[in-house]
From TrEMBL:
Keywords: Signal, Transport. This is Putative aliphatic sulfonates-binding protein. Belongs to the bacterial solute-binding protein SsuA/TauA family. The keyword Zinc does not apply. It is found in: Periplasm. Residues 1-25 form the signal peptide. Part of a binding-protein-dependent transport system for aliphatic sulfonates. Putative binding protein. InterPro entries: ABC_SsuA_sub-bd, Solute-binding_3/MltF_N, SsuA/THI5.
Length: 340
């Protein structure tokens, strides 16, 4: 009940903001505003909204036209956001905004999903002599650079008192990582759902560990800061739709799986299994819930994967009550409406 009380608070916050005005979001020339949304194959809630057409209907009164763009992973998605090719980014792992901030990207954190640590895992071959994280020493590992599973890798190595130099890391996109794993070109694959769900039933694979206790795995929704500042009503609507899509997905697991199965190229049972490990509880970002971002930034910098230290408290966070972007370290008390 506590979780749904928080989700109700999210909806109430968004509805309050929406009631502030109903003018259209047209450009000065009178043309419809384009909302360019970037997403990944694993962007569940955006896939649900896209398939059901609910977001298009919600922004229609503002004369907004949505354009969809699929990206292979979160890093190129945020690069497109920084380049002005995307206005809103579907969920990306908590690691991705840290890399974007290091690149001085002009973005704002709009929302986050509550932690889903078991939605990440370390996959090894069933007959491999790997039974603990310490057994990864000297092994060949596939991981997607800057993905949440990349932080899981660093955290897992640290817990086993290993350094990145103690293993052989290959940075691969999910599809390439799976192919390398199936060819036995790598000994372990650090992945996230639905990729984990797609292979965990394979008789030749097994789960070594999940992310529990290593990485909380919070996924974030980002927007171009200039777009959000220019179109706060659109941000309000997208947030409200994401909250509702998360509630609907958890309440209708079979219907959601039926929608997602062809999108992900998986059977419905596998999709349902993957979705049980994601909370899909969307909330506003508050400074109190932002601490792990700094730990992630520090870990990647120490591993020499970031060009400079990153102060995550200086990142921009969307203030729904004030309808503006504020620095995380100066977030107002109004943002605490959706804290846990």
């Amino acid at each position: 009940m506590k979780l749904f009380t928080r989700l109700a608070a999210c909806l109430a916050l968004a509805l309050t903001a929406l009631s502030a005005g109903s003018a259209t979001a047209q450009t000065p020339s009178g043309d419809p505003v384009k909302l360019r949304i970037g997403f990944q194959k694993s962007s569940t809630l955006i896939a649900i909204l896209k398939a059901r057409g609910t977001l298009e209907r919600a922004v229609a009164p503002l004369d907004v036209r949505i354009e969809w763009g699929e990206f292979a992973s979160g890093l190129p998605l945020t690069e497109a956001l920084n380049a002005g090719a995307v206005d809103f980014s579907a969920d990306v792992a908590d690691t991705v905004p840290v890399f974007a901030q290091a690149a001085n990207a002009n973005f704002v954190y709009v929302a986050q999903e509550t932690p889903s640590p078991s939605a990440q895992a370390v996959i090894v071959h069933r007959d491999a002599p790997i039974h603990t994280l310490a057994d990864l020493k000297g092994k060949r590992i596939a991981v997607t650079k800057a993905a949440g599973s990349h932080y899981l890798l660093l955290a897992a190595l640290a817990s086993a008192k290993l350094l990145p130099a103690d293993v052989k890391i290959s940075y691969l996109a999910p599809a390439d990582a799976r192919a390398a794993f199936e060819r036995n070109d790598v000994d372990a694959w650090f992945a996230w759902d639905p990729y984990v769900a797609s292979v965990e039933q394979d008789p030749g694979a097994r789960i070594l560990v999940r992310g529990d206790g290593l990485a909380s795995y919070q996924r974030y929704y980002l927007a171009s800061a200039p777009f959000a500042q220019a179109h706060p009503k659109i941000i309000d609507i997208v947030f409200k739709q994401l909250v509702e899509a998360g509630i609907w997905t958890k309440a209708h697991p079979q219907e959601a799986a039926k929608i997602l199965a062809p999108v992900w190229g998986l059977d419905q049972a596998t999709v349902e299994r993957a979705n049980t490990r994601r909370t899909y509880a969307v909330r506003a970002v508050v400074a109190k819930n932002f601490g792990e971002q700094q730990a992630i930034a520090d870990t990647f910098y120490q591993a020499k994967l970031l060009p400079k230290p990153v102060d995550t408290a200086s990142a921009l966070v969307w203030d729904f009550a004030g309808r503006k972007a504020v620095a995380a370290n100066a977030a107002t008390a109004s943002l605490t409406a959706t804290q846990p």
